[in-house]
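Journal club side-thread
Mid-discussion, someone asked how the predicted structure for our own chain would compare to the paper's figures. Pasting it here so we can look after the session.
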Amino acid sequence: MLGEYRITGRGAAEIAAGIERAVGAGQLEPGQHLPPMRELAAQLGVNPNTVAAAYRTLRERGVIETAGRRGSRVRPKPATTSREQLGVEVPPGGRDLASGNPDPALLPRLGAALAAAAAQGDGRPVRYGDDPVDADLARIARAELDADGVPAGPLTVTSGSLDAIERVLTAHLRPGDTVAVEDPGWGSLLDLVPALGLHTAPVGVDDDGPRPDDLRRALEAGARALVVTDRAQNPTGAALTATRARALRAVLRDHPQTLLIEDDHGHGIVDLPLHPLAGVTGHWAFLRSAAKAYGPDLRLAVLAGDPVTVDRVQGRQRLGPGWVSLLLQRAVVHLWTAGAVDRAAVARAYGVRRDALVGALADRGVTAHGRSGMNVWVPVPDETGSVARLLQGGWAVAPGARFRLASPQGVRITVSALAEADIAPVADAVAAAVRPSPARVYG
């Protein structure tokens, strides 16, 4: 079960610390099962309650998870493990369709924007106590949110979408609370929630977004928050339609105390209209990050929300980093106002590649999904075997285990690196690696 590694320790804290160190060092790998509590207690000569306390600590820290009767195992993406340990290794000469990165050719050059921001800062250096949100950034962002139907509310800025989600969750929830999440959904979110001491309630997803019946069941079972992706859902490419948004708002209207978090990270790379849910519940947050359209190193997201939520997020920021660099904020303003990214062209470029791959797979009898964004989701009966066979053929794709809780198996293919000439070879390789799957719903 554990290979050559042996768990040691007499107290709960010592046992937990040893396991956490082993996970961080790679001695215990993601997905590896831990001994049953009574078995480990007998090996260590301690009370089973001591081991139970150690495992509980590790679950709260996001290191391990409990898989029902299958016992406890190291999480697929444990909080103590570096991201490099968890990626699919691209073979020499192979192609990376797994990392989820945008196409570098579609990203703007940052030199002029950073120089303009620096010149502005030289003219008026940032001082402690200054407004943490650049006035021009707030003005432009608010105008776009208004145009997209996002309710009026104050704005703040965070270091990306995941930072915003963490701050909003901790502003309202306490350890032990449950969060309704998309399944399949963003792997980083699925690991963040338990790392905060919260529980996940999976909500199935189809091409139009989260399924209303699943959401209703999760909220009726006690979920206190919902995190939903409006467009370019990772990994499935789902996007909320007007009809689905109305159905979800109807469910949320029956649960007005729900904390609603909407992630519109696809803004700038999608050409589908936004159908926001915000405004139905008392507490809400709506996020837009710069990462996909302007580059992952621009760690910046605009957060709009109700006054209580935004005030709590800003208050906690003041006790930590203080603010997101005004240099970065002004650089993003420069990129926006200079028209550095042709959003329609970027959305069209990703859409052409995505639609071509989905269509080519359909021609080969393989069902695939991807209405928006840069990813295509392919249901498979055996994702481990499918990933391995594709790797042998020189194509690295992401195993669905990164993104799933209770939903069926699949693989994620990022189309950013694909040229027109790549579509047929990729589709041939996928068709050879998986059996056709007729299912439309994948959660």
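Post-session note: The longest strand covers residues 199-206.
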